[in-house]
Amino acid sequence: MAAPNLISKQKLAAFPNWVPKSQLNLGLDLRGGSHLLLEVDLKAAQKERIANLVQAIRAQLRSERIGYSRIGALRDQALVVIRDPDKKARKGRDGQTNIDRASRLLRRLEPGSTEVDINGARITVGYTIEKRRADNIQVIQQSIEIVRRRVDELGTTEPSIQTQGADRILVQVPGLDDPERLKKLLGQTAKMTFHLLDERYNVGVNLPKVAPPGSFFAKHRPDKRQKRQGRKSGVTNVLKKRIVVSGENLVDSQPSFQDGQPVVSFRFDTIGARKFGKVTQENVGKPFAIVLDKEVISAPVIQGPILGGSGIITGGFTVQETKDLALLLRAGALPAPMTILEERTVGPDLGADSIAAGEIACIIGFILVLIFMLMAYGTFGVFANIALLLNMVLILGGLSLLQATLTLPGIAGIVLTIGMAVDANVLIFERIREEVATGRSPLSAVDAGYQRAFTTIIDANLTTLFAAIILFEFGSGPVKGFAVTLSIGLLTSMFTAIMVTRLMVVTYLGRRRLQTLPI
Amino acid sequence: MAVFPLRLVPPNTKINFIGRRKLAFVFSAILIALSLGFFAVKGLNYGIDFKGGILMEVRTPGAADIDNLRSRLSGLGLGEVAMQEFGQPTDVLIRIERQPGGEKAQMAAVEIVKGSLGKDVASYRRTEFVGPKVGGELIQAGILAVILSLLVIMIYVWFRFEWQFSIGAIVALIHDVIATIGVFSLLGLEFNLATVAAILTIAGYSINDTVVVFDRIRENLRKFKTMPIDDLLNHSVNQTLSRTLLTSVTTLLALLAIFVFGGAVIKDFGFALIWGVLVGTYSSVFVASPVVMSLNIRGNISSGSVGGESGQESPAE
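^ Those are the sequences you sent over. The predicted structure of the assembly is below.
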């Protein structure tokens, strides 16, 4: 509808085939797709870092044989209470007290990024604000990377993944067949670890009340029978806390089949292969557990040493589950859990319908305004209409130039602009009519009309523009698109109404030398 | 070409707008009172943008059997489920209230609904859920945007004109905003982010109209220093009346096209804008100017510049 021959050749060269609408950046509400706002649980990541810090402190104190009566995480710090703080060490240890040795040890743990505070026998170790901030940024960046890998694995075109605020990630994926799958994939942390089972307890039989030191409880994922009964988890296992190997050491993972059952095959890197090989060698005949996001997905018995660094995970999967699990393992684990705060998915058929409806509304609105202007101003109406046509071209050109996204409310913005764009011309023409009524000659009436209407046009349009800009700042998604088209439309309409029509009017008057204005 | 110059307003129209300001005041007062009353009693039908929850637009293979769909979903224990035909007989809009238990619960509910509808649904045209956290933020951003834009407009008008104009403009804008909220409450239309966008656009349109009238008042204040103020305001409004109506008509024509042909998704948005143009046009003439008049505008302007061309023109043209 926007005639391309109205633009200059330069501009036409800049947007080669922009007549097909695909040149414009269409929003998800028009082309169909999913908009997901994710929140990264930075607190959980921080908690995990403190837990790791506690582990490191425990290991250090043990190796130096410094006794402690209490160790653990307290809020966002690690806390340790040293036993016999003032007791001096035995020979060969410089005669220092336990507390001195412990504090020196902990200060050396991560120098520069921790704050160590000593109060009697209590030592607290926490990360500095700078370190925490840097860690948070890193977590977000890693999360984005993992999200990108997972989305890419789905084979979609041009996904957009970007941070929003301090702890959010906005994922926009156009043209998706199955948004539920994407949500499932993004909602999982996919942290995989291998553990040995605590052999003192039989699975699901003689469970202790609390997990013994060095071990933890983990529920098995429900098997098919349990799922049918509507149960959310299977038997409880007692696992050794020590991680034999983790998903970080995986280099590949693929869905495959074994004895007709869908399974996931995986391959470790050299370090992972060595660790896995050693443990399987030493524990033949014992069971080990594969844990995914705190849930045991499979606990097979080690049949023999696995030295090649590859293996399979069985677990009564469906084919789709093996595909998803393999994908998640390939893409890697998220550094912190993520929640989906908001979803907006538009199916491709609705998008196409919206474009069609928007086009019709545009064309009809346009024609109505053209006819009305012609009726109101005659020849001058023709000038205004040419300016309006040019205005449409400029809006579309401006949208492409700014790489702005055209949304459904954006189309509404264009239609609204069609109605409002003629305002500047109406102001001018009405003013000319008034000037003619005072008895001015055509040329001087036109001149005065343009001149006097100018400030009015500027004042009136600037105030509207302010509202549009604020809308752009605060609006989200499609609403932003509306603000963009409205703003561009206001600016271009001022240009076309003031400059372009004036040129036409003056040229026309120069040719005709009219005594009265046809207005 | 110049065969049918259509004049909505004949030249030299002299309608006594200012003389009817008491009537206009009563009308506006009733409009505002009704709006606030509806808002207080009936409230607004907030969309999921603000209160959180789930919205799905589904297309069924044949004409939709809404009762069947409703009975399917009401058994799922998801709380209040609202359904309505949307645009055409095969399309149904399903609204499910916010699920207790944070963001994950919304996502799980979407999955349950999709599983339960199964083959009754040919395609999911739209699936949206907004968790409680984002909803709260969107309310804040929306309110902030409206207040901020009113403030900015007020400051600009103050800067370009005089404070009396700025008060007149802001009273007219608040009038328009309240009247729009009132009509949404009355008709039970969904109040969502797009509605906030519509309100801001209405504010933008209304101020545009108002500024044009103000501009003329300012000009006339310099030109006709001795004219009684009510005559002067009347004269200004009448002079700009043709433009006010012409622009309103072209804008309404365009908006009508959106409302009728733009599709079900932006129908309400189009309606809000149509209403806003009507109210905004009314308020520019009947609210903004009378307020300016009541604020003793002349004292300020007369000390200002002397219009260069004031001598040649007479008030009655």
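The beta strands of chain B are 45-46, 53-59, 81-86, 88-96, 123-130, 190-191. Residues 53-130 of chain B form a domain with the Alpha-Beta Plaits fold (CATH 3.30.70.3400).

Shout if you want it in another format.
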